[in-house]
Amino acid sequence: MLNSSPPSDHIDVPEIGTRWRSTVVLKRDVFSTVERGFFMTPDGEVEAVLRRIDQVPWWSSVIARVLFARERKLLRIAGDLGVAARLHYGGRSVLVRGWIDGVALQVAKPFGEAEFFRSAKIGLCRLRRAGICHNDLSKQQNWLRGPDGRAYFTDFQLAMHFPRRGLVYRVLAYEDLRHLLKHKHRYMDGVLTPTEQRMRGRKSLFTRAWMASGKRLYEAVTRGLFHYRDTEGGGPRLAFDAPRIAERLRGQLDVKDVAVVAFFDRGARNSLYAFVESSMLLKEETLRAALTAGGDTTVAPPEYIQIVPALPRRENGDVRTEILQLIASNQIDLVDSLVRSDEERQVIAAITAGRHNLRDKF
Questions:
Q1: To bridge 151 with a disulfide, which of 120, 164, 246, 254 should be the other Cys (CB 3.0-4.6 Å)?
Q2: If we measure between CA atoms, which residue out of 272, 138, 116, 119 comes closest to residue 200?
Q3: Phi/psi at 11 (nearest 5 deg)?
Q4: With a threshold of 0.70, does the pTM exceed it?
Q5: What are phi and psi of 335, to 5 degrees?
């Protein structure tokens, strides 16, 4: 079993004092910081996730508070439905929800898992009966696959609650279901019914209008003004710097392949971790020197470079970056459910044993 979790430290967080012990920073952007750790409740300490907005820049604080208030309100409802985490604490700038032992859809990649998509549809029906529309299910990171194979929802910042099921509710509920079918088509190709196929490709009038106008304005503001790119949670460095880092490292002698993934820590808004497949004779100093050769400072080097004898791969040869991202962010306990063979387990164990990010930077 690959089990080597980082230590936890008590952190003084406004509103909740030292009731929070943090282990990993899961995400940080201009709208919030999300951490994994442990929270002290009246019934004892539980594993949980904390979202805080007390450290966001002043120029994004208004939007951050709107998103925060939405999630706080909706988790109070959705947390009792068995399809999302329960809200343990909801204050003015800090909320704590339960930890769901699962991995995001783009990490789990549930190819052929009919039970996952069956439970996903049941979960959407429960949200519907409660009058909730998630409104952000197009993103794979907002779907979790639990160890029981069931689907769970996370990130309710854009969700809405409708006491009455009017036209707007029906349109948004339709889009939630359409996004489910989009993911089902990706991982269960060929099993959609004719009705589901038509629905998957038929955007609502509201969505078509949003794609043509509102989304362009949204991207102009978030990407242009806020410099915010989600990239499945990876941020702008994964989008812009990572490909250039990988290209330069692949050009070095004795380098077979390179995989660059993102992770978050307390010392940077987002960070990069490069896994370099090569013989162990190659030195990290050589690779870092290659990245800055000729005084080139246009690309910031990754925070960590780890030389590994082999990278985990799928049957088609593609690198399993989802596993590397969990290792980079020190969520080793989530790797086991993704391992598919004893041979792959040995490859991953070698990488895990030599990993450089042994804990967050407190």
A1: 120
A2: 138
A3: -130, 135
A4: yes
A5: -75, -35
| Cβ burial, residue 35 (10 Å; 0-12/13-18/19+) | buried
Instruction: Give the tokens for residue 17.
Output: 């004092």
3-class secondary-structure state, position 131 = coil
Residue 362 pLDDT exceeds 50: no
What is the distance between the alpha carbons of residues 150 and 48, in angstroms, rounded to a whole number? Answer: 19
Picking from 78, 37, 42, 43, the residue whose alpha carbon sits closest to that of residue 52 is 37
Residue range 231-353, CATH number? 3.30.300.30
* Cα atoms in the 13 Å half-sphere on the side-chain side of 129: 8
Other CB atoms within a 10 A radius of the CB of residue 289 amount to: 12
CB 15 within 8 A of CB 94: yes
Measure the CA–CA gap between 219 and 201, rounded to whole angstroms: 23
Residues 201-228 pLDDT 10s: 777 766 766 655 655 555 555 555 555 5
> Rounded to whole angstroms, how far apart are CA atoms 282 and 272?
20
Alpha carbons 334 and 237: distance in angstroms, whole number: 24
Which residues in the chain are classed under CATH 3.30.200.20?
9-98
Domain at 9-98, CATH from 3.40.50.150, 3.40.718.10, 3.40.225.10, 3.30.200.20? 3.30.200.20
Plot region of 85 (φ>0 → left; ψ -120 to 50 → alpha; else → beta): beta
Farthest CA pair distance, the chain: 66
Would you state the torsion angle of the CA atoms of residues 183, 188, 189, 190, taken in this order, to the nearest 10 degrees?
Answer: -130
